[in-house]
Amino acid sequence: MIEIKQVRKSYGSLEVLKGIDLTIDKGEVVAMIGPSGSGKSTLLQCINGLETISSGEIIVDGISVFDKATNLNHLRRKLGIVFQSYNAFPHMTVRRNVTLALTKVLGVSRDQANAIAETQLQRVGLLAKADVYPTALSGGQQQRLGIARALAMGPSYMLFDEVTSALDPELVAEVLATLRQLSAEGMTMILVTHEMQFAREVADRVVFFHEGVIAESGPPQQIFGNPKSERLRAFVSRAG
Amino acid sequence: MSYNFQFGIVLDALPDLMRGAALSLSIAIVTMAVGIVLAMPLAVGSWNGKGLVACLSRSWIELARNTPCLAQIYFFFYGLGAFGIFLSPWLAVGIALCFNNAGYLAEIFRGGLNGVNANQMKGARSLGLGPVGAYRYIVFPQVFRNTFSSIGNQFIWALLNTSLGALIGLYDLSGVAMDYQSRTFKTFEFFLAIAVIYFILAKLVLFLANRFKPGGARHAA
């Protein structure tokens, strides 16, 4: 379970998160939607401590992320994350991208790491590309590599930060198919997304961010079918 | 009085010159290896370090790059004598060149660090790698690729700088030449010969560097 309690974050005088409360249960798929700059991506990166918070608390499976005693490197194994910008490691093959952290962080043997990599690359449909370098991959393939790399660590939660936003439209579908498959397998997922149709389809709960606060949240039918606030109604009609 | 060119004497001295060249090359290789290891934390410290770390690494880089290499060698050979520390010529040259190479390489790496996307660090950290692991496995391998030619150039500088060791009695390639010319008075022949040997060694280093240059396909787009 991920508990986000009264989280605030400022960059200088600009407050981007203004007291966020949100709880995500095991097995849930939560979609975070909202206009650009509303704080949703920032919050996502706070969950695994890649971004810091100004006040409040985030607790993952009972471990407080920003407690000084918390080993963040250890905690991050529970939290896989995939970013908007593809950040495959360009100096390693696709296979090595997946096995690196297995061998260097988890201390898994080369053989075992390769076996795990093959399983995960198969899962995202990239096994045939295992021995090429990431520059030879399309954007969609690079994102699927990012997903395989994160999954290989055996995370309890997967965080997706606008993973389709930088993709050409024809490549979006293959990435969404991978996400759909993960949700069907029961993976706990938090998605920051602009794909409203997709959020509606896979999310158990949709959270609408506006100017650093959660303006509305609920099941997708309610958020998209019967938005309470004017802001959400305007956002949903614009985003289609 | 006309000067009689006698290259036969140089040929007789060739085995000694080769031994000197081997010493020059060994010092260049060792001081480059140590320099690269030292330059990595220096580059990171001056690139995004704070307070004392940034100050110390900046000072090292500035001192190494803005003072003559000869002065650096003299400092470790004669200067430390004032504190009762007496180093042998090769140790003084070795330490001075490590200091010098580290400073130049750190500045090269700093530029290379700017060329690595910040998301690479985020990606590495998100997988549970600590800062040292992230630099070691993800960031620096890309920095080395980005700065490969500059590292090769620094190697040549290191090789040529070893010649300054002759001034404190190092029996490197230049030291051997100085010794022989003082005994035979064949100054031109010996210095022309070692110039040719330095040139060949430098070209050999460049050739090997290009030979083992990381493939284009591996470069980041």
UniProtKB/TrEMBL annotation, chain A:
It is found in: Cell membrane. Keywords: Amino-acid transport, ATP-binding, Cell membrane, Membrane, Nucleotide-binding, Transport. The keyword Nucleotide-binding applies. InterPro entries: AAA+_ATPase (IPR003593), ABC_ATPase_HisP-typ (IPR030679), ABC_transporter-like_ATP-bd (IPR003439), ABC_transporter-like_CS (IPR017871), MetN_ABC_transporter-like (IPR050086), P-loop_NTPase (IPR027417). It holds the Pfam family ABC_tran. SMART domains: AAA. GO terms for cellular component: plasma membrane. Belongs to the ABC transporter superfamily. It comes from Paracoccus denitrificans (strain Pd 1222). It is a peripheral membrane protein. Its main location: membrane. GO terms for molecular function: ABC-type amino acid transporter activity; ATP binding; ATP hydrolysis activity. CDD domains: ABC_HisP_GlnQ. The lineage of its organism: Bacteria, Pseudomonadati, Pseudomonadota, Alphaproteobacteria, Rhodobacterales. Residues 2-236 form the ABC transporter domain. This is Amino acid ABC transporter ATP-binding protein, PAAT family.
TrEMBL record, chain B:
SUPFAM superfamilies: MetI-like (SSF161098). It comes from the Bacteria. Its main location: membrane. Coiled coil: none annotated. One of its GO terms (cellular component) is ATP-binding cassette (ABC) transporter complex. Residues 21-209 form the ABC transmembrane type-1 domain. The chain crosses the membrane at residues 21-44, 73-99, 155-178, 190-209. It is found in: Cell inner membrane; Cell membrane. It is a multi-pass membrane protein. Keywords: Amino-acid transport, Cell membrane, Membrane, Transmembrane, Transmembrane helix, Transport. PROSITE patterns: ABC_TM1 (PS50928). The keyword Secreted does not apply. GO terms for molecular function: L-cystine transmembrane transporter activity. NCBIfam families: HEQRo_perm_3TM (TIGR01726). PANTHER family: L-CYSTINE TRANSPORT SYSTEM PERMEASE PROTEIN TCYL, MEMBRANE COMPONENT OF AMINO ACID ABC TRANSPORTER. Belongs to the binding-protein-dependent transport system permease family. HisMQ subfamily. This is Amino acid ABC transporter membrane protein 1, PAAT family.
